[in-house]
Structures are given as C-alpha cells and as structure tokens.
Amino acid sequence: MKNILLPVACFFLLVFPLCAQEDSLNLPLDKAFVFFREKVKANPESPYASYGLARCYFLSEDYRKAASLSKKFISHKTDYRNDFLLLYARSLLALGSQDKAIHVLSEAICEAPENVLFYYYRAIAYYKNGDVSRAINDVLTCTRLKETFSAAHLLLGCLLYEKNNDRRAAIPLYYALFGNAKAPWAAQATYMIYCLLAFRHENLVVPFREERLKIREVEDILACYCSSPAYKEWQPSVEHFVPSTTSYLLEVAGNLRSLASCYDAFFSSLVSSPHLVTFSYYLLTSFSLPEVQEWYKTHSQELSSFAEWIDRVIKE
Fold first, then answer.
1. How far apart are CA 86 and CA 13, in angstroms?
2. Measured between alpha carbons, how far is 276 from 91 in angstroms, rounded to an integer?
3. If you write DSSP's letter for every residue of 94-131 in order, what string do you get?
4. Rounded distance, CA 272 to CA 250, Å?
C-alpha cells in the first residue's frame, strides 16, 4: 500500500502546481499581482508570467479574468498547458459553467489520463450538475491513481452518502482522516462520521441546487453539511466515538472490496490487528480532549505498537 500519511499540505501544492521561481510562489497575493503583471507587460506571451497572473485572478475570485487568460494559452504546447487547462476548468466551475468545465476536463483526460486533478474537478462538476453516479466513477478513479489524495476520499464519502445513504460512506472519511487528523477539515469530517454512525442525518445540511452552484471544492460541501446549529453545539464524545468506530469498522470491513482496493487492504489489516481502539483515539487528536490526552499518557505501549503497525502498512 502506498504511503497514506502524506501531509495535507501536499494537496494544496497539487491544486496549484505553479512551476515557477520559489520567491514568486511565496509572495502575498497583492505583491504577486504586481510581480506577474510586470512580467506579462514585459513579455505578454510568457506562459510562466501569464499563468502566475491568471492564478492571482483566480485567488482574488476574479474568475472571468482567470478563465479568459487561461483559455488564451490552452492551445499553446508548453509545460504549463495542463496547468492552464486546470485553472480554466476551475474558473468555469466557479462561474457556474459546469457543462463547459466537463467538456474541457474530458478532453484534458484524453490527453493526460493519469492526471488525478482532472478527474477530481470533473467529479465536482458532475456533482454540481446533480450527476452523482458519474461523480463517483471519477472520484474512484482518483483513489486508484493516487491513494494519498485526501480530497478525493472526502468527496467519495459525501457522494456515497448523498446517492443512497450507503452504509460505507464513513469509510472514505476515516481513510482521509488517517494521517490528516489535524487538517482544517478534520472536525467537520469527524462530525459527519458521528452523524452517519448515530443516524443523525437530520443534522447534516445537504446542499441543494442553489448551494451546489457555489461549490468549488469538497471543503465547501463539508462546510454546508456542518452549517446547522447542531454542529456549532457539538463536541465529540470519546465514550461514543471510540466504541461506535470500532463496532462500525468491524461490521463493514469485509464489504469494501467492491468499493476500492485501498480501503479493503487498509481496513482488513486494521480490524485484524489489535489497534482499532488506538486508531479511534488517534482520529480525535485535533480536538484536544482531556480524555484523549490522558489516554495517550497511559497507553504509551499501545501507541508504540500502533506506530510499528503503521510502518508495516506503509511498506506493503
């Protein structure tokens, strides 16, 4: 199994794969605008400068300018072509032009069938159009191409839930949380798991047509799910989360082969190990709960054994 502990920061590096000078990558947005505008003024045909400026437009939510500038360079055979294609499609998504985005991404996939981001954003486009089945197919392709792509696992959990309340919807969320327990979206993903396992579906606010049109990333879907007052008042309970997690994983672990091979391999190994409880506590690390901190202090041997198990799983 591939390394599933890739830091969540790597996802954001993939989302904006600007192959440029390191100093320009680290510039604040206002300074980046000045930097790339000067570069474009000096050489309007520079793909590096134009991509940098288009990216600035996108980050400042001027999606029309981002789309216009990106589209101009799509036909150019440069090292930035896939970057321009992706930025153009994402700009179209932000503008509510899902059908155009799907067309652009479908053509891009024909040229670069291993590019996981093309499938991911086409899945977002299908989702915004209400075509959940096609979105699931694309996001499953993402999980096969790159097991460490946490956004794809989060999106799959949302899609399985919305399609038919698949009992396995929590599995991709657990998988995404593993190695990303302190990610910005970790609390929302944990809350979604809680609602699924406790059958509190009324506490999840599913985005309908108007809300879907505003979605650009899977984090936007999670934010919508967690927009109810119940989430603001919620605090995870160790007494509930740990036993419900272990019980759920023991129940569904044998029914994952048809979902994704990475889930089948990982969770089959987990439930046959003595580390289910440790795994459950680990997922709660971002909440700074006294019970979790105390458990860590008194179960150092279990934690050490868990770390060794993780190391073996990574090498498989």
1. 14
2. 42
3. HTT-HHHHHHHHHHHHHH-TT-HHHHHHHHHHHHHTT-
4. 9
The tokens 């505008």 sit on which residue? 37
* Residue 70 · residue 54 · CB < 8 Å: yes
What pTM did the predictor assign? Answer: 0.88
Residues whose CB falls within 8 Å of the CB of residue 203, separated by 6 or more in sequence, listed in order: 195, 228, 230, 231
What are the structural domain ranges in the chain? 9-19+79-315
9-19+79-315 folds as 1.25.40
Reported as a single tens digit per residue, the pLDDT across 116-145 is: 999 999 999 999 999 999 999 999 999 999
Q: Give the tokens for residue 4.
A: 């599933």
Residue of 217, 220, 240 whose CA lies nearest to 121:
217
| Two structure tokens written together for 103 | 């067309």
